[in-house]
Amino acid sequence: MFTSNPFAELAASIPPAVMQTYVVIMVVLVAAGTLFDIVHKGSARYFFDNWRKSKSKGAQQVGVGELASLAVKTGLVDVLASGEFCNARRRVAHLLTMYGFVLYVISTVVMVFGYATPAAPTPDILPALWWIGGLMILLGGYWFWFFIRVDVAAEGSSPFRLMRADLFILSLLASVTLGLIWAFLQTSARSGASVFFGLYVIATTLLFASVPWSKFAHMFFKPAAAFEKRVSYANGTRSNLPGPADKPEQFGSARTAPRHY
Known about the structure:
mainly alpha
């Protein structure tokens, strides 16, 4: 099961070209949704305006070398290590979900575009990575949803209380859960595989089509925001955003746990 490419087996009923077209459409939806989010919310304008104000009001200029160093720190601490999360459990759950999502998406794309037919044998590592990535998403996502969310863990709210901010994590969990169930049923030749595949497609479409209304686009904004925070801290100005991940005491609010994922 863990070494069987579910998309190659699916090719018996759905042409690989259709699967590949669907993946391309999802990529276009993410790009279009992110651009719409930037224009609608003015995120890019806000960051560039804040950047210019920071440069003009800064007590000291930040050189090219220091900017490069800050960019590296942003990538290593804020992006790869999710340093913004002071709560260890929250950080681990986020890292599991983030790296699981990366593994899951990359292995999906490679299998769909490179090995979507039985005639092209799939290396065992690809389906294994697909399953590992999916299980990491489920572990991190469900752990967060039922035990770590602030309104659940600290305020005693029901884990089934839903808000629009939950659209991304819920659609992601639905997509991956249904996808793994479909793959299991298909590879074990059990009934119901086609039903779960249909639900998997619906949940996946919702995940990528809802970018303008979910928090999906935040993953593209957060590195820019983290970099701006570090530059503002380095040139002596106070950013409107919380302080850098490794200097949260600068503004205090960096230690305030976000309400939603």
